[in-house]
User: Which sequence fits this backbone?
């Protein structure tokens, strides 16, 4: 009886647990693999530049997903005074850890003086720098996370939007590689999207990006940028990227990004392909 139990336990271990342990990371859906195959047949080299190593996501998991999905992984984390990589020592450890796998490595910058405070030797080890416009200094110069809407007021909407426009231009003038979530507006002023992001303003913004060698991201979980911006950016010859902006280790399948590549007939040479060290 006892012997039988041991055999039963061992059988369970071999046939049930061993396969699970050997492949514990998620697999892409058939639908995603078919979509990637269609895009690859058109000549695309697909790179997801916006994979945060947070919430359980690791360089190993990002590399495993790259092998399974056929989409190259670019891993990064947030830098800045109030962020996980708050100094150069932490950034050095992050790079060292990510370098254990053959991945593109970047940072997401949140302080507007990042290019002065980040160690140049560390910047030189990075493949890219990504930023967004979602943190703007308030009237007293304190950084304000714009998605935390209960933490700030907008008393004068036109004046706020004008200040935000100046902020957007500041970010795209920094030595960044990718502008994530372009044309973002916080929910309470989203109703002004079309009157704020006029064709003229979008055009000026895109021209600045092109002049500074900044690519514009089509982020999968975001509704920004809208199609009109993507189309204008393409017309002007800007480079585009795709990205997931994950918060955990659940594998986002980049649905919106990949769908838009197909629906808008975007061509492989319109996507930014690194490595092309900028700093
Ligand atoms: Zn991000």
Assistant:
């Amino acid at each position: 009886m006892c012997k039988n139990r041991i055999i039963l336990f061992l059988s369970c271990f071999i046939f049930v647990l061993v396969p699970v342990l050997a492949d514990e990371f998620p697999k892409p859906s058939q639908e995603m693999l078919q979509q990637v195959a269609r895009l690859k047949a058109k000549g695309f080299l697909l790179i997801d530049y916006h994979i945060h190593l947070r919430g359980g996501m690791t360089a190993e998991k990002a590399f495993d997903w790259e092998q399974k999905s056929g989409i190259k992984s670019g891993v990064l984390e947030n830098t800045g005074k109030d962020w996980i990589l708050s100094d150069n020592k932490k950034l050095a450890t992050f790079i060292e850890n990510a370098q254990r796998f053959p991945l593109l490595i970047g940072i997401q910058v949140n302080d507007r003086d990042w290019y002065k405070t980040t160690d140049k030797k560390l910047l030189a080890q990075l493949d890219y720098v990504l930023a967004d416009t979602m943190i703007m200094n308030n009237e007293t110069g304190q950084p304000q996370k714009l998605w935390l809407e209960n933490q700030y007021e907008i008393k004068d909407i036109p004046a706020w939007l004008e200040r935000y426009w100046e902020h957007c231009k500041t970010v795209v003038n920094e030595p960044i590689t990718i502008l994530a979530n372009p044309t973002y507006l916080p929910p309470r002023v989203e109703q002004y999207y079309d009157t704020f992001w006029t064709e003229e303003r979008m055009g000026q913004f895109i021209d600045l990006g092109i002049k500074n060698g900044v690519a514009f991201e089509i982020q999968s979980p975001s509704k920004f940028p809208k199609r009109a911006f993507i189309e204008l950016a393409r017309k002007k010859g800007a480079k585009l990227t795709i990205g997931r902006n994950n918060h955990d280790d659940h594998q986002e399948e980049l649905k919106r990004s990949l769908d838009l590549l197909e629906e808008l007939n975007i061509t492989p040479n319109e996507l930014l392909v690194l490595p092309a060290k900028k700093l």
In short: The mean pLDDT is 92. The first helix runs from residue 2 to 22. The first strand starts at residue 47 and ends at 52. Residues 50, 52, 108, 180, 245 surround zinc ion (CB under 6 Å).
